[in-house]
Amino acid sequence: MGAHEIRVRLGWVSRQRAYQITSRADFPTPVADLAQGKVWLTEDVEAWMKIHRRDVDEPGE
Fold it and tell me: Whole-prediction pTM value?
């Protein structure tokens, strides 16, 4: 899953917000860093979202 798919799954957050979220220490580590961008395992991102979804929605995060 790339950054665009993560943006969609998080409710069409901005690119900047997606970068903030994927840069968090508790966000899954990317499995690859390609010329087009980083790639994460879908299962890892979905598992993270189940745990942190409310945190993502809180302003100031």
Answer: 0.81
